[in-house]
């Protein structure tokens, strides 16, 4: 394969970038270049062992991004705020997205696949937004929207936006973290459906968009593999584990006391009013076959 067959995957040691790199490597029709900050990190070494070319780069360093993009036909893009014990740092995300878009354009990349979050662009219509109820969420959503709008208008020959739903491996859904080993304590109402997606299926969707850019050009895909309430999730997990799990919808304070990060707990209350836009049938309409939550949970138990 020539250098122009290569695909650059950023955030390659994370869940979405790693899943995209693995999906492309498994498909085998293109060489895969993964950008990491630390090539000795276990996830980076695993991708190298699987056949990926590992390059060092930093989303804050435009020169390193141009070097990483050089000769690539496509780029997988993802940025995220930084979560720490002191809070969430949103300050770099928007500029990092711009740095990568500009580097890809400068190096003649034809296909750009960017992943953000389900609901981006519709967040301003959420109940209470205009009144300032979600002011603490504004920077998160507006940063995501700014990068999505930049990708749409940048001038790439082909571009795709993936807007994945809640990850199936979200710690909230892991029985290992349930209160007293059996009680899922959440701030989300028990009657609210939640769109769910396996990180592996985000990678497969990104790989599909990269390998068939004409079909996915201009597509903004709200990506989900299942749509369940938390009691339905608990019922599935109970059946798989042979235990009885229950769900308790509590306050933010109760969730924090049980170990949930305060910013995460407050953010989850947004799900009580936000419209559910990601649906499994949307993915299937593009030939994708995302896993149901039950299939994903069963597979995970069989492989761990």
From TrEMBL:
Per the record's keyword annotation, is Kinase included, yes or no? no
Q: Which residues cross the membrane?
A: none
State the InterPro entries in the record.
NAD(P)-bd_dom_sf, NmrA-like, NmrA-like_oxidored
Which Gene3D superfamilies does the record cross-reference, listed alphabetically? NAD(P)-binding Rossmann-like Domain, UDP-galactose 4-epimerase, domain 1
The UniProt entry, under Pfam families, shows: NmrA
Record carries keyword NADP = yes
Indicate the segments forming the NmrA-like domain, all copies: 4-254
UniProt entry keywords in alphabetical sequence: NADP
What family is this?
A: Belongs to the NmrA-type oxidoreductase family.
The identity of this protein, by name, is NAD-dependent epimerase/dehydratase family protein
This protein's species is Corallococcus llansteffanensis
